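Please supply some protein, with fold tokens.
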Amino acid sequence: MKEINPAGKIVATVECPASKSYTNRALLIAALAKGISTLRNPLFSDDTKYMRLALEQFGISVKQETCAFVVSGTGGNIKCPRNEISIGLAGTTMRFLTTFAALSPGTTQLTGEKRMLERPISDLLKALNQIGVNARSLKNNGCPPLEIPGGGIPGGEINLAGNNSSQYLTSILLSAPYFKNETTINIIGELTSKPYADITLDIMRTFGVTVECENHTRFHISADQTYHAMDYTIEADWSSASYFLAAAAITQGEVTLIGLNPDSVQGDTGFLNVLEKMGCTTERSSEKIFIKGNPLRGIDINMNSMPDVVQTLAVTALFAEGETCVYGIGNLRIKETDRIDALEQELSRLGAHVESGEDFLKIRPGTYLPTELETYDDHRMAMSLALVGLKVPGIRIKNPSCVEKSFPNFFKQLEEIL
């Protein structure tokens, strides 16, 4: 249990941790490249630990240094794991390895903790089945544990449902240069969370592979490309930055963030624009991001392009005048928890007026009471709900250690700015 102490107007400078999205993509790409890559300023967290340990079971040497991973890539010649691989609750690791594993010469089994075994992955399995990889759900329920036969991936044409997760697309894209033939991925319906696909294309390009992308509806990867080993610095994480931006908004304080890329393709850069719409003042430069909190007003907004900051926005909305309506967020129901349902439960318990539907959430401020708030073993629930305690006395966060998944030092950094 973690109790949060209320704060006055926060005035602070914060350095944010590295991006989980970039770190896990970089680890897998460096494993496929031929030669030694040094990944500087990576995120050291539960999710990246599971990726590192899994890659080692495929015969990839990944040395963890003080501020770097040193990856000895094998040019796509990976070994078959001797044992079943458990990836805990690391969703990106599970999705990315599902395609990667088929490049090994034998059969791989992937499993994880309870919630991971409830998270759907059938869209990705169906896509791989179309190009000759008979990956399957061992319980025939479209969820892990998975069995993935090896022997290489032929490549070809894939029709992939786009509405549930962009991670299925990323999984195929990351390994596609090592398929035997060129590959085309046609997205059926609208691709959700497009900026995460852009992160994938960005890092693939940096490591030497070009993907032809037509309006996020068609992706083509030629088979004559390979990744180049390199010295690569992981950029800081805008999802993690959102909690400190919101802290300034909620307390009408001033926060300066350093180390962020203002031109990043990370979708969560858009959270600054969201807070501006709610009344905050912001400034951006290559040196720093500055935000000043002002009286907040509720907004209507589509958050499909930045799902990882919906919880941060929902908590910010508790302290705004009027109703906030967040929509386009249906895929939050298949994250670490059903985040729409979890937000409705906890914000209502606190005293807010909350209404939800399949892909929306409406929040009207109420009168808030000291409360113990559940985290559902979801790192983003813990970090966003902690912000309530900056204004409301007696807020206690259950199972705070779940932040280890993406931001192990979160509570330490939060206390430092109070």
